[in-house]
Amino acid sequence: MSSSSTNQSTKRKPTTDLDDSSDPSDNSALCLPEEKRLRASEWKREELGDVGVHFAQNPTPLSDLLDKLKSQKGTRVTMPGFTEHLIKFTKEVLPFSLNDINWNKDISICYDREREAMEQIQEVQRNLVDFAERSEGEIPFSADKLAKRLLHRWFEEIFDFLVEVKEMLQKLNNPNLSHGVSNEDTTILKDSAFTLLFMKFTEIFFLKPEVSENKRTVLKIRNKVVGCVPDIGFYEHDCERHRARLLVMLTEVKSDALKKSANEEEDSNLPQIESYLKSGVIGQIGIELVSECWNSTFCPNTLGIICMSTKIMFVYMEMNPEQYEALTKNKDLKGKTSYIQYSKPYDIMKKEDRDQLIHILFWLGCVQKQNFHSYYLM
Question: Which parts of the sequence are annotated with region: Disordered (predicted)?
């Protein structure tokens, strides 16, 4: 996860009933030098609780989360009919599960399983090519210009995702430490490799990820000035408002922030998310969601995805607007609280998990693009 600062002073227009004066872009915090700002990574779960933001006790089913997202103002898009075919095709052409690959292995482990997995992915690629050739005249919407364009794009993105998987397996099979890397660091695949893999996966669903280097947020909460920037963002480009709204914030979690086992004995009073992530990273994720709520497509709520090796987890913060105003203006919270819901982890290298992600990701792709016709044909 990244955290930083910005000198941006462009005023953001709210999409809720919040007072314009509570816009964090107008806050004097923007004028503070970077060394006086608290990075998002310095927030702890306890500090998040002190400002009335808590993680739910248990995971939320993905279907319930999608229903919440669909109910938000401004996101009531109609998924084109051909996406139902693409949902079916995606499940059909990606039948593989790589359940027993140790993606975090180091150079001391043998690689027979990786060779088998590479052959498995190559077979999937061959079948995909056959499927593409066979489907040209068989698909019901093949005469539709837009549907045909999207079908071709979908094929390309599926193939690129498989190439990325195969390249990762090749690295595991033939480890070669990069020049300049310490000999003590023998991990073959770095954390960023998994983020790139998930980015490739999302492109199958017409989502467009962007590196968020220039999209920094500075926010004053109580007497703490927080500066942060998401690692990767999926932005909905709103032509009417002439600004990009954050659809999904993607956060890369380093391997040393993951729990070794979800079955470790835990305090039953702690949120279940802490069985997957160490407590030190919980506060950081929470405050990043708070920081981005003003610029979110779901304002004042924020949607995020946590990338944990080959697993991902959705997080969704429902911010109380009055609480947000109290935090940024240093007023009494008067007992107001907000909660962050989260899904269980889904492994994109396992078919059963991957299939459960397909519908929500296609829906998010439709929200981001809004108008497929103008985006792909004009």
Answer: 1-33
